[in-house]
Amino acid sequence: MAKKKRSDKDAVDNPRGVASLAEAKAWMAARGITEIECAVPDLAGVGRGKIMPVSKFLSGPTMNLPLSVFFQTISGDYPPYDNLVDSVVVDSDLVMEPDFSTLAIVPWAQDPTAQIIHDAYHRDGRPVELAPRQVLKNVVDLYAKKGWKAVVAPEIEFYLVEPNIDADYPLKPPIGRSGRPEIGRQSYSIQAVNEFDALFEDMYDYSEAQGLEIDTLIHEDGAAQMEINLLHGDPIVLADQVYLFKRTIREAALQHKIYATFMAKPIADEPGSAMHIHQSIVDGETGKNIFSDADGDPTPEFFSFIAGQQRYLPAVMSILAPYVNSYRRLTRDSMAPINVQWGYDNRTAGLRIPPSSPAARRVENRVPSSDANPYLVIAASLACGYLGMVEGLRPTEPLEADAKGLDFELPRGLLEAVAAMQHSEEIATVLGPSFVKTYTAVKQTEFDTFMRVISPWEREYLLLNV
Questions:
Q1: Which of 266, 322, 334, 344 has the fewest Cβ atoms within 10 angstroms?
Q2: Residues above pLDDT 70, as percent of the chain
Q3: How far apart are CA 295 and CA 37, in angstroms?
């Protein structure tokens, strides 16, 4: 049967994405859009770009940004460019091309505003190998060459906190509709979520307007800690959705004079926040899950995918846990994993196999923290599974006991994680040597910036005692 051609009306009515510049023009005209935000996600997952009148965008949708946007640290600094890039071209412009499938409105904007994600290219047409969205595309292409297609479903945890304008003061839970801050543990509490109903109604409205598909909302273990689960799908589409969702929940929270934070460990005595990634691989032609055979039993590819995660996740830890704060989450006395053990429905292990039908058999990577760049964390996790399958690796035996009592198998800090990535030739081959070199240089610079700060702990215990 011939594929039905999409009509102009279909394109205009679609809340998210069009196929061409011509459809974009009609889409924006139907909504009275006057401005458009043109962004490209950087190494931290921050959108960098320009805001311009729609008339300017439609006259030439490409934009230029300097190469240095992919070298910026989270604090706005830059690593030394020696051996990273020719100093002559460090501030040379890149060409940013819009991906029209990402066109959506900005529902919280005062004036009718659209947004669109761009991909970065060198002037000779080559994709920019440092761009996180391109890193993920490269991994997806590796799967495609094997006849495979990855399917992912992210789960993102975050905290709601009182506005904090002085970084010297710790964060506190916000006041809900009852007029009281949340205390104690409220895991899966409907009532605790209802405390912020007005905020979440805005979040759902904003998400629907942008075509973001939220599966479930739950209350997590920490005070005013929530989790959003997104529907499973294509890795690039889901990474785009996480990137947009983070901004959406921040904006919805600000409407209610609350902060939403995706820090891995924002409050000392509360649990950390994770970004769990559910992963399965299907045959590119049939769409059948290659983790299950015709009888519904697990396949060698399933076990090799797990083994690849076990072997290589430590080497990409600086992506899964990208900041010094990230490692405060990964402690033995919490539900965050400290190793790469795996087990069937074992939430204490780094790799969990959820109960499912054979068609939905998948591997849940519980190591990443919510502060991670969604493009890079999905790319890194899939890269590890890919290496396991192409190398035919075999995993350890599944763990039935509590994995928290076992040894640490993951890097304990940022510098250790950076070194692990630098020493992995396999990861450099899959993610790109230029990316690995630049990413680790940025992380080292961020650590240097952190070391210039004297913490309250040091003043408390060292000031008069040493």
A1: 344
A2: 96
A3: 50
Segment 212-256, tens digit of pLDDT: 999 999 999 999 999 999 999 999 999 999 999 999 999 999 999
Handedness of CA 160, 161, 166, 168 (dihedral sign): negative
- Three-state helix/strand/coil letters over the chain: CCCCCCCHHHHHHCCCCCCCHHHHHHHHHHHCCCEEEEEEECCCCCEEEEEEEHHHHHHCCCEEEEHHHHCCCCCCCCCCCCCCCCCCCCCCEEEEEECHHHCEECCCCCCCEEEEEEEEECCCCCECCCCHHHHHHHHHHHHHHCCEEEEEEEEEEEEEECCCCCCCCCCCCCECCCCCECCCCCCCCHHHHHCCHHHHHHHHHHHHHHCCCEEEEEECCCCCEEEEEECCECHHHHHHHHHHHHHHHHHHHHCCCCEEECCCCCCCCCCCCEEEEEEEEEECCCCCECCECCCCCECHHHHHHHHHHHHHHHHHHHHHCCCHHHHHCCCCCCCCCCCCCEEECCCCCCEEECCCCHHHCCEEECCCECCCCHHHHHHHHHHHHHHHHHHCCCCCCCCCCCHHHCCCCCCCCHHHHHHHHHCCHHHHHHHCHHHHHHHHHHHHHHHHHHCCCCCHHHHHHHCCCC
Phi-psi region of 151 (alpha: psi -120 to 50; beta: other; left: phi over 0): beta
Closest CA to 396 of 353, 342, 345: 342
| Residue 393, token pair as written in the block | 């690796």
Q: Structure pTM?
A: 0.96
Pair 379, 136: CB distance under 8 Å: yes
Sign of CA dihedral 164, 276, 118, 449: positive
| 302: number of Cβ within 10 Å | 24
User: pLDDT tens-digit profile of 29-65?
Assistant: 999 999 999 999 999 999 999 999 999 999 988 899 9
Structure tokens at 64: 């230029």
**Residue-wise pLDDT tens digits, 411-466:** 999 999 999 999 999 999 999 999 999 999 999 999 999 999 999 999 999 999 99
